[in-house]
Amino acid sequence: MKGMFEIRWHGRGGQGSKTASILLAKIAAASGNYVQAFPEYGPERMGAPVLAYTRINNHPIHLHCQIEEPDLVVVLDPTLIGAVDVTANLSKGGDLIINSEKEPGQLKDTLGTGDDIKLFTVDANQISEEEIGRVFPNTPMLGAINKVINWLELTRFTELAGEELKRKFSGKAEVVFGNLRAIERAYQEVKGL
Q: How far apart are CA 110 and CA 150, in angstroms?
């Protein structure tokens, strides 16, 4: 990854937008990048729309503000489409990844995206339920992100993710391995136009 890469995360309270933004930043830092990851706080409560941000750069980051024009937008909850403008200020040529069982073409008209935005979908809910045992779409979305931006080899990405997950879920090997399987599946199953 060369230069600044900025990601905006849309989700609902309790889905792990903030956690995923931080985990992605930790993976990026472990791979030698400079990072920032932070939520946008408001009246957060379980189920309320939330935002989080991740910045990755191969040079020190001197910005300390919200991300105005993301290169990538990640939507953890498809019910936000229509309720929130998830495509707002998405960079021309930017990527949009939505957690949905639908094909990207089925969402293109609903979103009103032109050809200047690349749209991807992955059923992160199903993947997480099958691999982790609960619906937590945030971790599978990391695999989809890695595939879409063509960042790290999958084995390297899962190795770095595994190190972070082992710290977070110390003594819970089944949780770590379930999350890693979810990342790998989402990497393989993400669909694009």
A: 27
* pTM exceeds 0.85 for this model: yes
The predicted-structure confidence for 70-88, as pLDDT tens digits, reads as follows 999 999 999 999 888 999 9
What lies within 8 Å, CB to CB, of 157 at 6+ separation is 27, 142, 143, 146, 151, 183, 187
Q: What is the pLDDT of residues 5-55, one digit of tens each?
A: 999 999 998 888 999 999 999 999 999 999 999 998 665 567 788 999 999
Q: Which two tokens stand for residue 42?
A: 């408001």
The 3-state DSSP composition of the chain as helix, strand, coil percent (nearest 5) reads 40, 25, 35
- By DSSP bridging, strand 191-192 and strand 118-122 are antiparallel
In CATH, the architecture of 5-192 is 3-Layer(aba) Sandwich (3.40)
Give the span between the Cα atoms of 104 and 193, in whole angstroms.
Answer: 6
Q: How far apart (Å, rounded) are the C-alpha atoms in residues 60 and 173?
A: 34
* Nearest one of 10, 20, 54 to 34, comparing CA atoms: 54
Backbone phi, then psi, for 171, in 5-degree steps? 80, 5
